[in-house]
Amino acid sequence: MLIARQPVFDTEKQVIHAYELLARNSGLSRFSPPTSDYHSWFDIDKAVLDLADQLLKGELNLLVNVSEHTLAVERRFHQWRTLILKLARKHNILVEVTELVTPSTLQKRWDSLRSMGVELVMDDFGTKYSTLTRLHDFEWDIVKFECGQTNGYTSCMLEGIDACMRKGIPIIAERIETYNQAVSSQMLGFNLQQGYFWAKPEIVLHSQLHTRV
């Protein structure tokens, strides 16, 4: 299992705005969700948080993902929440709610997530459950959009971008891999950008994680 950090770059101020902690199976070429195994998701969510305090120094923002599997199970959610609250004493934490988190699970956990005092981020707008309905139904601090490799942003994404602008919600462009993508995204209002064009993920841990039942 590889754990890495990748910066979110502020193109206006020309500084690193935040680091996102990422995890992937070591056999894969890209950082992506681990496996479909129910327990693996929680183990990875927890492993990232266990290492977070060591990996991030200073006062930069720290983005961490939370999965459906962590949010859905009471015991695991409270373990994860305890770790987040501990980190939040030292760092500005941004929690990314992945697009695979179901509406029922998010509704169940929203008040508890909000009470943690961290910023809540909708990940991958326009994918799976990260919809316009979800954008309007909850008070998000940030919304992330993934730049397409060929067609840029879909009409659904453009509608989401417009909604964020009207609500005053900051937006982040992900998977920016070329100069043209960076420029076109900035023209749409994406001053915060993340992707290989700016920096590849820096591997900070390579280890074997053992899942627990």
> How much helicity do the residues have?
25-40%
Instruction: Calculate Rg over CA atoms.
Output: 16 Å
Mean pLDDT: 85
Outline the biggest β-sheet: 8 strands, mixed, barrel
CATH topology: TIM Barrel
Number of domains: 1
Do you know the CATH architecture? Alpha-Beta Barrel
Number of strands: 9
Pfam family, one: EAL
Protein name: EAL domain-containing protein
Domain EAL: 1-213
InterPro entries: Cyclic-di-GMP_PDE-like (IPR050706), EAL_dom (IPR001633), EAL_sf (IPR035919)
Summarize the structure.
The chain has about 210 residues and is of the alpha/beta class. It contains seven helices and nine strands, in the order E-E-H-E-H-H-E-H-E-H-E-H-E-H-E-E.
Q: What's the topology here?
A:
Elements: E1 2-10, E2 15-24, H1 38-55, E3 61-66, H2 68-72, H3 74-88, E4 92-97, H4 103-114, E5 119-122, H5 132-137, E6 142-146, H6 155-167, E7 171-174, H7 179-187, E8 192-193, E9 202-206
Parallel strand pairs: 2-3, 3-4, 4-5, 5-6, 6-7, 7-8
Antiparallel strand pairs: 1-2, 1-8, 1-9
Helix pairs in contact: 1-3
What are its keywords?
TIM Barrel, single chain, disordered C terminus, 213 residues, alpha/beta, 7 helices, eight-stranded mixed β-barrel
Task: Describe the fold and architecture.
The chain is an alpha/beta fold and 213 residues long. Helices cover 37% and strands 24% of the residues. It has helices at 38-55, 68-72, 74-88, 103-114, 132-137, 155-167, 179-187; strands at 2-10, 15-24, 61-66, 92-97, 119-122, 142-146, 171-174, 192-193, 202-206. α1 (38-55) packs parallel to α3 (74-88). The longest helix is centred in the first third of the chain and has 18 residues, at 38-55. The chain is globular, with a radius of gyration of 16 Å.
